[in-house]
Amino acid sequence: MCTHKMKLEREPFEKIIRGQKIIESRLYDEKRRQINIGDHIEFISIRNPSKKILTKVKALYRYDSFKDLFSDLQS
User: In terms of CATH architecture, what is 3-74?
Assistant: First the structure.
């Protein structure tokens, strides 16, 4: 199990804290290929790097495009 660090802007960071954001979408680049179910992601506020929140990866979804992802999430 690993802990990965990712930076977020204020609004999505605050939504995670409030429980209003439970899915994080990123390009499946080399860094994201290292993430596995059960790992942790430490989100760090870009505006205030001392603000951090630790989350656990419960699922991974891969899509060919963001359009496909959002289409699937709406159904």
Answer: Roll (2.30)
